Amino acid sequence: MGTVVDAPAVVTEKEVVAENMLGDKKVTVVFVLGGPGSGKGTQCSNIVEHFGFTHLSAGDLLRAEIKSGSENGTMIENMIKEGKIVPSEVTIKLLQQAMIKNENDKFLIDGFPRNEENRAAFENVTKISPAFVLFFNCSEEEMERRLLGRNEGRVDDNIETIRKRFKVFVESSLPVIEYYDAKDKVKKIDAAKPIPEVFEDVKAIFAPYAKYVIIYQAT
Ligand SMILES: Nc1ncnc2c1ncn2[C@@H]1O[C@H](COP(=O)(O)OP(=O)(O)O)[C@@H](O)[C@H]1O
Ligand SMILES: O=c1ccn([C@@H]2O[C@H](COP(=O)(O)OP(=O)(O)O)[C@@H](O)[C@H]2O)c(=O)[nH]1
User: For binding CMP, which residues are annotated in this chain's numbering (predicted)?
Assistant: First the structure.
């Protein structure tokens, strides 16, 4: 029979720096990065289910802001239609608010930071540096196929905007991944494989963050 006990604290010294302040709140943050359609959102749902993180998709927060009729809504919508990166202060405010509002202290920040300015501004404003960066690596051919098949009615999932998003990813977002890679913080995943296989690789990375450890006792 299995006994469920609390997982031991297995955070390494290197990762302790990730527990920074958000007001009075200490949080652990993982940035989930990768090209459009690489499977970030899909795998984040799996991580939430198995490892007790809260998923904050920067894109979803921006789309919710458009829907809420906020004064920034039109500007955000126009930028998303063009595949451009929304000004840092707008996105950072939404992420900060979401982290403060949520009781959890472990967050997956999906699709942010998208450029060096996003990254530097986030670190300056929140004083949070990520425990690590999960990077989903996938070819443009495969990502294009996935985006064209996504079928969620998104204004940016058309071939013209997709090509712009790929260009922005290569020119602006890859340097962020390189920045963290130089700090040995990037965990790169082969995202071209089928969803369950990608999650096997993701699981190995998140094992230290397991919600429970199940101990099987021989009887
Ligand atoms: N490993 C995979 N293999 C095939 N299709 C996938 C895979 N991961 C995600 N998808 C599909 O591709 C599309 C884009 O995935 P999504 O998670 O929304 O990507 P992102 O958040 O990186 O833009 C979705 O329709 C999703 O169901
Ligand atoms: O931090 C962010 C996240 C998203 N976006 C905008 O939202 C779009 C969709 O991003 P999302 O992460 O939802 O989807 P992806 O392109 O990764 O599939 C991007 O192309 C940008 O226009 C942004 O400006 N800043």
Answer: 118
The answer as to CATH 3.90.180.10 being correct for domain 28-209 is: no
* For residue 113, cis peptide bond before it (omega within 30 degrees of 0): yes
38 is in an annotated binding site: yes
C-alpha radius of gyration, the chain, whole number? 18
Q: CB 75: neighbour CB atoms within 10 A?
A: 15
12: confidence class by pLDDT, cuts 50, 70, 90: very low
Phi/psi of residue 78, each to 5°? Answer: -65, -40
Give the angle 34-106-23 at the CA atoms, nearest 5°.
Answer: 110
Q: Which of 2-16, 104-118, 177-191 has the lowest mean pLDDT?
A: 2-16
User: Domain ranges in the chain?
Assistant: 28-209
Residue to mutate (ligand 2; options 85, 89, 136; most atoms within 8 A of CB): 85
